[in-house]
Amino acid sequence: MTDWVPDVLGDGFEQRTLPLGEDAEGAIDATLVRALPAPRLEHRPGGWERFVRGLRGLPAFDDAVPLLDGVDVLYVHGWSDYFFQKRLARFWSSRGARFFALDLRKYGRSLRDGQTPGYIADLTTYDEDIAAALDVIAEDADTSRGPRRLVLMGHSTGGLVLSLWAARHPNVASAVILNSPWLEFQLAPARAAIAPMVELQARLRPLDAAPQVDLGFYTRAQAEVADPDDPMETNPIWRPAQTMAVHAGWLHAILAGHRTVAAGLSITAPVCVLLSARSAIPSRWSEELTSADTVLVVDDIARRALKLGSSVTIERIDGALHDVFLSRRVARDDAYARLERWVTGWARSSGS
User: Fold this and answer.
1) Which of 9, 118, 194, 195 lies 20 to 30 angstroms, CA to CA, from 66?
2) How far is CA 281 from CA 217, 220, 288, 317, in A?
3) Predicted confidence (pLDDT) per residue in 221-235, tens digit
C-alpha cells in the first residue's frame, strides 16, 4: 500500500491508495480519504465554528472527553459519485471520531484510464475494498481506552453496499447510518419482471449500456440550493452532471442486492436511515425538484428499510434532496440536527 499523501480536498484531508489487484481492464485500486483531527469546537474560530453553531440544536463540546472518542467512521459514496463532503467529515471529527471515506474501485480518485466507470458485476466484490480500508484504519488506532467502535455511513448505492456488508459481517459495525440508501428499485412492482431480462443481458453482453435518461436536473437542484458561504466544488469527471452509463452487468448486481434486502438482512447494529419527506419525478425542471428526492421513491425506501434489522430509526426530512446533506440550508440543518440527536443517543447508550 502507498503512504498517506495530501488529498484534492486540500488542508485537513489526506488520501491513501489501496491496491486491489487486476481485472480485464487493468490494475484496480480503491482510495481511502481521512480527515485530520479537528480541534474542539470552542477553540476553533472562523467559518467552520460559525457553521457548526448555526446547526440548530447541536450542543458544543463541554466534556473533557469528546462524545465520539474511540469511534471510527467509514463513509461510502453513491452511484456516479465520490467523496467530497468536507462539511460532513468535520461533523464527525469535531466530535472526536476519526473520519474516513472510501472511493470504491473505478470511482472518483480510484478511476483509472481505460476503466468502465463504476462498473461491478457482483456487489460482494466490494468486500475487498472495505477490508483493505479497515486494515488501514486499524493500523494506527488508539486502543488504550478499549476496543474502537466502527460506524458505517453510506449514501444511495453506498448505503446498499454497506447494508449488505454489515449483514454478511455481523457484530463488526457498532452502528449503521444511511443517507437515502438505494434499497429498492424505483419501479419496485416491476422488479421481478425486469430481473430475468437484465440477468440474460448481463450474461450475454454485460457491458451493454442503457439509454441515458438523466436530464441533469438533480445536479441543477444541488446548484440551486448550494450555500454561497460554504461552496462545494466537485470534479465533473468523477461526478458528471448526468449520471455515468448504466451497464447490464452492474444493474444485475444492483437488482440482486435489492432482492437480498427484500428478503431481510438482520443487521445486528442499530440503523439510522435519513430520507427526504417526498419524491418528485424529474421529467421537466421545476422548483419542486429543489426540495424533494428526484432519484428514489422515498416511501418505498422507508418501507424497505424496516427489513434491515431489529433496530431501525427512520428520519424523514422535509425539503431534503436525495443527498440530505446537500439540501437547502433549512433542510440540511434539520438533517444534521437529527443525525446529532441519533448519534448522541447511540453513543451514550453504548457506553461512550
Assistant:
1) 9
2) 10, 14, 9, 18
3) 999 999 988 778 899
